Amino acid sequence: MALMSKLRDKTHIVLFVLVAAFLALIVFEWGMNFTGPVKKAGAAGSVNGESISTAQYESIYNSMVSGFRRSNPGAEVTSDIDAKFREQAWNYAIDQTLIQQLLKKYGIEVNDQEVLDAVNSDLNPPAIIRQNFTDPKTGKIDRQLLENARRDPQAKNFWLNAQQEVKQELMVNKLLMALKSMVNVTDPELAEVVQRQFTTFTGSFIPFPLSYAGPESNFPVKDDEVKSWYEAHKAQFKEEPARSAEFVFVPLTPSAQDSVQVKKEINGLIPQFASAASDSEFVKIQSDMPNSVNVALSRADFSPAASNALFVSAKLAPGQVVGPIADQGYYRLLKIKSITTGEPVASASHILLRVNPADKADAERVMVLLRKISEEMKGGASFASLAAKYSQDPGSASNGGFVGWFTKERMVPQFSQAVFAGRPGQIVGPVQTQFGLHIIKIEGFDNRRIVCSEVTRQIKASTQTAESIKRKAMDFQSAAKSKGFEAAAKAQNLEVGKTGDFSRQSLLSVPGMGEAITKFAFKAKEGDISDVLDTDKGFVITKLLTKNDTGYHQLDAQLTPMIKAELVREKQATALKAKLTGLAKSSGGSLAAIAASDPNLHVITPKEIRWRDGAIEGFGVDPRLVEAMAGMKLNALSQPVQMNGGYALVLLTGRQLQPGLDLAAEKQKVLPQLMKLKQQQFLAEYLQSYRRNSKIEDFR
């Protein structure tokens, strides 16, 4: 019985062995050719006309959810997590079907003797044997345990399933080997790889940016040119069927009465928590965060208000229960075990002034503003009032610039260094970070750590509150249908959000609402307004704006300026190449003569140019330019060659291998690595192409 329990416990481990074995080398960038959702009884979808049953799809999905619950006890499967698992399950089901089709296509089979030999092999046993019968002490197969399982009559079903698992794995391995056998490495390929690794160049060049051809305004682009370019490069814009929508979200905000009720409930736990024989068991049962046992917390682990309430509490002592304390949508009840010390945390306020360092006028504007703030501060204005008046950090400006308590790691390095090197009350700065210039007031430091267990309860909307909020959402939905979406939102002071383009697989940037919006959008017609859709965090009403089932991103307001910019670059490049060709001819092949003709031009003569990584000493990294050098004639001025941001004229004077290099020996070293790389690349491209060209229908 113990053996059978072990096998049952490990069944979930091997569920996706075949998919994992088959897809180990694949980059997950496959596309899908959806032909539109057409419901079919008992089928979740089909691949090349072969049905994927709903039972198969749901079985994979349920296994994923079960695995998540085992790994994350107490965690909630939100709608976003659920949507993610459903999409993963769907893709696994597709992959399994594609595997079977490829096995049939190549006529790959495995006989019973091959299965038996694999099970008995110590060299490379099948995954199901390794996972169930490996001795953790030796890392080898426990043959005695394996034989006991074979003889156990209760293990009959396991072995029937295991036989099929092993058979499938062996067939997949044969398929991989068959595909790999199509790859070979030629001697010229080997020679190029070795030469690329050990060859360096010497020479000189003059870089010319695209702007050398003239300003962008000299190269106007017409609308018909944009359309022609789009049609010629349409393959670049291939995408899955897409939708765009607008929506109104009505949040499920708890009422004051809901907060009072949660506080009352957690207050009632204080006597039991104080006398609990096992804090771990009590927290596990009573808390929304069941792992908060014997944790060390600093002031940085609380909101500013909660931090003040806790760290100045008269009850802050070992053995005491402190709280409940309201903290960002939760009530926290803490049982103090001990108070220790650790690395200090800090609190600070700041005034943020955003600036573009590359813009001289903007930098001067900010300097004027800094002087003005300094003068007002000297005149007696409080830091908090100046932050509210001038700071461009909306998150803290309304709170006098206060950013709360934080560890060194939580802030950007420049900010943290300035704060932790100072003293309480000190004003430092301006400090420059990626966000702009900061004037910082150091509020204080605290190195205390509270070791405690805590019961946490989220303040959630009650059923009564939820019903009231849903009625508000229903009122809006009704008004949107009769008066129009925008007008109804404006009348009820509700914000209208935009999704942008999204596919069935897109993760919408609307947390908690993605699945609901996607389900509606792919069933609706343009202009349709949804019913009130329930989500984890509230209610959403959606209006479908656009449908695109062409398989390509359309030429829209987002794409048009990108194409125009590309056309301008192409026109500049054409003009620049012509200009450089003329310069090369008129100079008699002399870079010095070209540079002498224009004081803005400079000849670059690096000591070393490396082929392997495109590094040009003293200039930077430009693989495209260095790659061009590899094919140039020595001591002859090149034609214009493309480089980062423009073109160059190059005079290559030397191409040399590392002295003393044994080319034949290096080829032998590289051969297995190059073979493996080519096989992986071929497998990825083959399998991506196979799936991309498959007809995949989604009936879910």
Quick description:
With 700 residues, the chain is α+β, with helices and mostly antiparallel strands.
Question: Which key terms come to mind for this protein?
Answer:
alpha+beta; Chitinase A, domain 3; 20% strand
Structural description of this entry:
The chain has four domains: 179 residues, no CATH class; 123 residues, Chitinase A, domain 3 (Roll); 93 residues, Chitinase A, domain 3 (Roll); 207 residues, Chitinase A, domain 3 (Roll). With 700 residues, the protein is α+β, with helices and mostly antiparallel strands. Helix 3 packs across helix 4, helix 9 crosses helix 25 and helix 19 crosses helix 20. It is globular. The protein is built from 25 helices and 19 strands. The strands form five sheets. Strands 5, 6, 7, 8, 9 and 10 form a six-stranded antiparallel sheet that branches.
Topology of helices and strands:
Blueprint: H1 2-9, H2 17-23, E1 43-47, E2 50-53, H3 54-71, H4 79-105, H5 112-120, H6 127-133, H7 143-151, H8 156-180, H9 187-198, E3 199-209, H10 223-232, E4 242-251, H11 256-267, H12 270-275, H13 279-286, E5 295-297, H14 304-311, E6 321-327, E7 330-353, H15 360-378, H16 383-390, H17 394-397, E8 402-406, H18 413-420, E9 427-433, E10 436-458, H19 463-483, H20 485-491, E11 496-498, H21 514-521, E12 533-534, E13 538-548, H22 559-586, H23 591-596, E14 609-610, E15 615-616, E16 620-621, H24 623-629, E17 641-643, E18 646-657, H25 663-692, E19 696-698
Antiparallel strand pairs: 1-2, 1-19, 3-14, 3-18, 4-11, 4-13, 5-10, 6-7, 7-8, 7-10, 9-10, 12-13, 15-16, 17-18
Helix pairs in contact: 2-4, 2-8, 3-4, 5-8, 9-25, 10-22, 19-20
